[in-house]
Amino acid sequence: MTNYGFVIDNRRCIGCHACTVACKTEHDDPIGVNKTWVKYIEKGDYPNTNRNFSVMRCNHCDDSPCTDVCPVTALWEREDGIVDFDPDRCIGCKACMQGCPYDALYIDPETSTAAKCNYCSHRVDSGREPACVTVCPEDAIIAGDMENPNTDLSQTIADEEVQARKPEKGTEPKLYYVDGDEGSITPGSTGREEHYMWSDAPNQVETHGAAREDFDLQKAAESLAESDVSLNASDEESARADGGHAHSAGGCGCGGNCGCGGECSCGSDDQVASDGGYSTEANTGATSEKKNRTAKAYELLNEEARRVYDIGESHYESWGWEVYSYTMTKSISAGIFLLPALLMAFGLLEPDVTVMGVSSLLSAVFLGLTGVLLILDLEQPTRFHWVLLRPNWNSWLVKGAYIITAFGGFLGLMVLGWLLGASIVVNPIVLSIGSVLAAATAIYTAFLFSQSKGRDLWQSPAMPLHMLTQAIVAGAAATALLGLVGFEELVTPSQLVLAGGLVVHLALVASELFTPHQTEDAEEAAARIVRGRFATAFWAGGMALGIAVPLVALALSASPVVVALAGVATLVGLFAYEYCWITAPQTISLA
């Protein structure tokens, strides 16, 4: 079966941008967005400099996360392996942008739908190659069938050492690089600059970009040391992160072609290879033997690798205030029903039709706000109903939409029963069914976030439990306010549940942010929350106001006013934490 892929031969690429121009022309893309682009990495100081080019685009993964998370099947994998896209089905939810680890998708400013490289599928269907392949003057872009051993692409993959971007994500990318540069393939290896060459005129994407953190050279060196990139000279050729060549056996830094027989001055340690990059051959003698891999990586990167040409990354805060507000209103909706329902179902609170009726009404109001926020976040809000009518059942956006719909319908029946004075609204079986729907409403977002392969911090296995805990805490905080309007019987249960929930919430926050993480991106996102850009919101809002103040207040007094104020502080703190948790991972560079 045909399975199309790409190879980018960095030995041939001259950074001419012909592929970018051909792609934009072929698809009539607007200014400011790109389906394919060229990234420049420079190393060294004048005159000993080296520039590397890398063509970036969709990887057409065999296990593509974007197709799984898309709720309306606007993205799908064709039988020939191409990940194609239909803008007429897209609702602009931006879930695919969160799912892609390669920042290959963006929102088209003219159509308000997602867009990406589709392998020029219309050309492939008519027997032609993608436009970028046809126009490349150096044949640096190779397209073809990976399953056919006779294609140039298959032979190149078989004959050359190739690299792929982020294979650890498990997406099985089909975009390979020959002589791939570490500074291009691994985004964290180079810092993002505020300005690139020819970039001073801001575009729509760049002006919405997030603040960029300072480049941590030591962390980048540690990451490079842990990779499989060779840092030593081999028998034939020394592999360098910048793609240059060191001394080969019996040769010199200029590749052994200068006629010097290996005796020229380029053999000294303070010289550079003919491509302008520094040689990484280990120094002879005891000093070389003592260097560890991290030190060598640091020396490599100390050449000051810089991005001098790139694009504004599209993923920055693509899920904004609407999303972290929606998670908050959803938690309140689920929690304010869940708490009294469970207490009554287990006989810990006297069954009261009015209490359940009011709780159901307030839950329905916040669930309605949740729906409004979700629709507001869509780039095509008039298509919101397609999530229910054109569902992709692999997407947790679809499953969540049906859970919310079911919970909303249940709440409507509960409110109706209350208005009719029906005692069935406090029946333990009915309350148990409602509790299951409320819990599902609370936790489904955790599974949606887990489909966002581009956000490593969101892959925490504790997320479902944490979402449920946040709903219980938000519900206890909201229920505490009902104690001020005549429902005194809810004050004591709210106080106890709120205190216990905050302790569990604190433990889960610690486990998610202060324990070692599996990836560097997750570690960096956590660091930005704890001691970076988001530190003030996290410590002052999420920790002090959201946890410490309520716990102290609840320990000092059980009066309805104090419990209610503790509830208000908790809700504000939860909102601050949601802001940090959802926004910080989106500031991590993906491309």
Q: Which overall shape is indicated by the principal axes computed on the Cα atoms?
A: elongated
Biggest sheet: strand arrangement: 8-1-10-9
- Major sheet size, sense and barrel closure: 4 strands, mixed
Number of helices: 20
Cα end-to-end separation = 31 Å
What report would you give on this structure?
The chain is of the alpha+beta class. The protein is about 45% helix and about 10% strand. The protein contains 20 helices and eleven strands. The strands form four sheets. Strands 8-1-10-9 form a four-stranded mixed β-sheet, covered by helices on one side. Strands 3-2-11 form a three-stranded antiparallel β-sheet. Strand 6 and strand 7 form a beta hairpin. Helix 11 runs antiparallel to helix 12.
What is the strand and helix layout of this fold?
Elements: E1 4-9, H1 18-27, E2 37-45, E3 48-56, H2 65-69, E4 75-77, E5 83-85, H3 95-99, E6 106-107, E7 114-115, H4 121-124, H5 131-135, E8 141-145, H6 152-159, E9 162-164, E10 175-178, H7 182-185, H8 217-226, H9 286-290, H10 293-301, E11 306-309, H11 321-345, H12 353-376, H13 386-389, H14 396-420, H15 428-450, H16 463-482, H17 491-513, H18 520-531, H19 535-556, H20 560-583
Helix pairs in contact: 8-10, 11-12, 11-15, 11-16, 11-20, 12-14, 14-15, 15-16, 16-17, 16-20, 17-19, 17-20, 18-19, 19-20
Keywords:
3-stranded antiparallel beta sheet, 591 residues, single chain
In short:
It contains 20 helices and 11 strands.
